[in-house]
């Protein structure tokens, strides 16, 4: 990946940080986008730099169409190209279906579905000019399994599946691939903050008997971004330890 330029949204914490660090270690310059945790962003940049990688961090709201377009314009202006887009950022809002507010519903779709679309649409221009591009969207097992307190999140992630397949068809002959990675439950700050009882219950649902490591999801993303993955498009790669197979 030497010489490549990659945008990773939600790229400074959890799964996104794992992706950013792996791609930077393999030679890509990573533009890690984050919502507002500046300490985590600076820590990621320092870790990557100490490991010999190149990472820049950019704060912003990916649900804002103008921010998405300006980000792509800025990346191309500064680096001369945009090779990879990893739409990883997500917003998980939990509420009972009957109690979910209109704002919560709109926010779930704005961040989890509209944001990835705005970035992908903006990225198509420079990728088409290069005749090369890789887009990887990050979904969720919730889209397939369903969760009673995550209706908006699940709906948005299911929409991301449809968007991935349709966009893959639209750009398949332009040197651009579009794929979806579906993670299960991983070792992140969010899952580690759960009660011990909840953590045990989730672990018991996973056939391999453990939560995933961010590096394992990052490996799947890197595989789809590889230059030799040009014959893989419109695919769904599930990385969940077998969770979505059900009982």
Walk me through the structure.
The chain has one domain (5-184, 221-239): Rossmann fold, CATH 3.40.50.720. Strands 3-2-1-4-5-6-7 form a seven-stranded parallel sheet, with helices on both faces. By secondary structure, the chain is of the alpha/beta class. Helix content is 49%, strand content 16%.
Biggest beta sheet attributes: 7 strands, parallel
CATH homologous superfamily label: NAD(P)-binding Rossmann-like Domain
Which CATH architecture is right?
3-Layer(aba) Sandwich
What is the CATH first-level class name? Answer: Alpha Beta
Can you lay out the helices and strands and say which pair or pack?
Elements: E1 5-9, H1 14-25, E2 29-34, H2 38-50, E3 54-59, H3 65-79, E4 84-87, H4 102-130, E5 133-138, H5 142-145, H6 151-171, E6 176-183, H7 189-192, H8 196-205, H9 214-225, E7 236-239
Parallel strand pairs: 1-2, 1-4, 2-3, 4-5, 5-6, 6-7
Helix pairs in contact: 1-9, 3-4, 4-6
Summarize the structure.
The protein has a seven-stranded parallel sheet, with helices on both faces.
Considering the chains and any ligands shown, give keywords for the structure.
247 residues; alpha/beta; Rossmann fold; 7-stranded parallel sheet; globular
């Amino acid at each position: 990946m030497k010489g490549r330029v990659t945008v990773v949204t939600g790229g400074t914490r959890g799964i996104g940080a794992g992706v950013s660090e792996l791609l930077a270690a393999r030679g890509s310059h990573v533009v890690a986008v984050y919502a507002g945790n500046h300490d985590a962003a600076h820590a990621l940049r320092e870790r990557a730099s100490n490991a010999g990688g190149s990472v820049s961090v950019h704060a912003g709201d990916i649900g804002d169409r103008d921010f998405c377009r300006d980000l792509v314009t800025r990346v191309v202006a500064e680096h001369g190209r945009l090779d990879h887009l990893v739409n990883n950022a997500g917003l998980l809002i939990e509420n009972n279906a009957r109690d979910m507010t209109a704002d919560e519903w709109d926010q779930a779709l704005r961040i989890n579905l509209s944001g990835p679309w705005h970035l992908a649409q903006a990225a198509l221009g420079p990728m088409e000019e290069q005749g090369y591009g890789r887009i990887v969207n990050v979904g969720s097992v919730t889209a397939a399994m369903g969760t009673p307190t995550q209706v908006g999140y699940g709906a948005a992630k299911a929409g991301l599946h449809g968007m991935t397949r349709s966009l893959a068809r639209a750009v398949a002959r332009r040197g651009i691939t579009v794929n979806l990675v579906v993670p299960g439950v991983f070792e992140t700050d969010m899952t580690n903050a759960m009660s011990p009882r909840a953590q045990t219950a989730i672990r018991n649902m996973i056939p391999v008997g453990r939560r995933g490591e961010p590096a394992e999801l990052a490996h799947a993303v890197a595989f789809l971004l590889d230059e030799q993955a040009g014959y893989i498009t419109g695919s769904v790669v599930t990385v969940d330890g077998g969770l979505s197979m059900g009982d």
